[in-house]
Amino acid sequence: MELLSGAGASRADPDARIRATCAVAMVPAGLDAWLREHPDVEGVDEDGRRLIVDCVLAVLDGATGA
Which superkingdom, per the lineage (predicted)? Predict the structure, then answer.
């Protein structure tokens, strides 16, 4: 989770946040809770959190063929 909260992580590698988020999202409900508990995630507001959760769920649905 260091990639999500580490200063400059998204600037150095814009996809690092997505990859780290996908790793957290193996339990999607856990991702939503984690994002709520970490309001300091750089550049992510409430709408952004919802977007991340929705995108990750879509990726997971595609990966599982759901």
Answer: Bacteria
